[in-house]
Transmembrane protein, putative (Tetrahymena thermophila), 479 residues
Amino acid sequence: MWKTNNLISGFVIKQITEQILLFYDFLIQIFNFRYQIFILQQIFIIYIVSYGTDFLKATYKQIEYICRLTARIFSNIYDQINQLIISNSYYIYFQVYVQIQILSLNSKCQINFSVISISSQSQIYKLLFDNYYIYLFFLSIYNQLINQLINQLIKFHKLLFNIFEGKKMIQQIKKYYSLEEFLSSSLLSHQVLHINFRSYKIKIGDEGALGLGSALANCINLSNLRLYLDYNQIGDEGASCLGSALVNCINLSNLALTLYRNQIGVMGASSLGSALANRINLSNLTLDLGSNQIGDEGASGLGSALANHINLSNLTLTLYYNQIGDEGASCLGSALVNCINLSNLTLDLSDNQIGAIGASGLGSALANCINLSNLALDLGRNQIGDEGASGLGSALANRINLSNLTLYLNYNQIGAIGASGLGSALVNCIKLSNLALNLSDNQIGAIGASGLGSALVNCINLSNLTLDLGQKQFICFGL
């Protein structure tokens, strides 16, 4: 029996010795890895000083902490391995065990160290066997820590890449605040262009818009354009010139054009629409024609143009106070159906002349935008009434992918029936998680408010609700 135990002990000791030697080689690789990390750290420090944000610096601190932690622990264990070969084994086993416990805590890994029972009288046999499994545990923890470090480095690399790209983009952005300055610039070199001629004193008018359009026509390398021309007394002729210029910007993918409070009518809106129809590569479009006079015909013309934009994913269209009625709203909605990739839509049609037919038609059209997940619709200060509110709700009920919805229906002659119908319909938007609903300055009363509340409580995935009823009397919801 003694010989058998002795042979078993000898076999186990041999295996453990081989394991320790392998582990020794493994530590050498670790130290090489540490030196590489040190070099990377220096590079990161340079990058962070130049381009760092608070979030980036916090990420770096995590990486630095892991590097320092691994260096300290590996150094300790490295020394202990050397001692293990030539000195007191029991002391070393204890030290290794303690170090691994520290590593476990610092790396936030919950490790259960098993108590191993061995049917042998040899104390050294037990210690070596226990130590062998301790090393296995350590290797497991080390791998977790290294994976954590690698993941941090990968994330950090992506952040740095995004920062460099962002800095590169910032360097490319050219900003102009006067027409003369822009006209004298190197037009062909512009890729990202911000032009801001908002002014309450200087108005460029149609003549200035003509000069601006002629210059923009030469910016054939433009990919991103923001053009702010509010309060500039631009009419149909100026808007048409701007539209013609955009036809030449064949690489344009992001466009923000604000022409708020000018004098643009049907012809100007239609010309802008025709120009935009040729820019089928647009993926992000913001168009503000608020407080002009485009009417139903102008809205329909814009809609027809937008119908060609199959690549459009983000659209913000502001057409408030433009004398748009049912026909314009319905045509605009029907056109948006063709924007098959549209996922984010902000549509402001407030302060117009839209009734129940227009609201229902618009809603029915939007219901067919199959990829729409975020919708902000402002129909405040129109005349949609109960029928329009219920019809709009019924249409949106088919939008099962809708997750974020903002509806402004204030000042619309909506009563209890309309409010209750709207609420009952929204229950069918099964993925709706965020809802903001403004029904202030209507006539929904206590009955309508209670009906609305009782319906909304059945929106099973709703996590955030903002509700403005603007009621003077006290209302108790049945939630």
